[in-house]
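hiii, so i know i said id send this last week but things got crazy w the move. better late than never?? heres the sequnce for the chain we talked about at the cafe, plus the structure i predicted for it. fair warning i was half asleep when i ran it
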Amino acid sequence: MSGELVPERGEFRASHEDRDQTVELLRVAAGDGRLTAGELDERLGAALTARTYGELKALVADLPTAGPALTGGAMAVPPKEVSRIAVDSASARREGPWAVPQRMEIESRSGSVLLDFTGAVITLSTLEIEVSVHSGSVTLVVPPDVFVDVDEVEMRSGDVRNRAHFAPATPVRLRVHVTGKLDSGSLTVRPPKPPRRSFWQWLLRRPRPTAALTR
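okay and structure toks below
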């Protein structure tokens, strides 16, 4: 209509997809160390209740990219091509909202490495992992929609165990292909542990809560 005021883009109403994409961007930023856990929690809550593009844009204004919800393009924070982890007698962990790269190279001489995919930011469909384990251990914690193939890992005197429960009917969000070799160490793939009961749940004999599937 002639003379009708057209709202600025920042005043347009945001959709569920816009909010989800902004949440994904925030999780990637936290995985890269750009946001603390407290900042992430605060911004996630604001993103999930945002009504307009302007509110979403304010949440990522200090990050390197504006994200798909605000630019209309593809996500501008690509995952790393290669991530390398090397431990001697120490331990390394990737858990919470960490960004899954295209490829990982893991070396463990006598330490331990844990990769927890339960809350990971997954933007690709496949992940290549090459392991070199001497007397240490590598553990992969995977939700039901992450499939792990360890058939091509060479073993000398090590131990490879795949305890993940994957149902053929489950849509696969990420396929992990593990190669490399084990000397006398271990490679374990397992599902997340069930959430612990609170004191009141234990006191009232309530059943243990089931783990929710992280998207």
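btw Residues 1-7, 71-76 have pLDDT under 50 and may be disordered. thought thatd interest u
miss u guys!!
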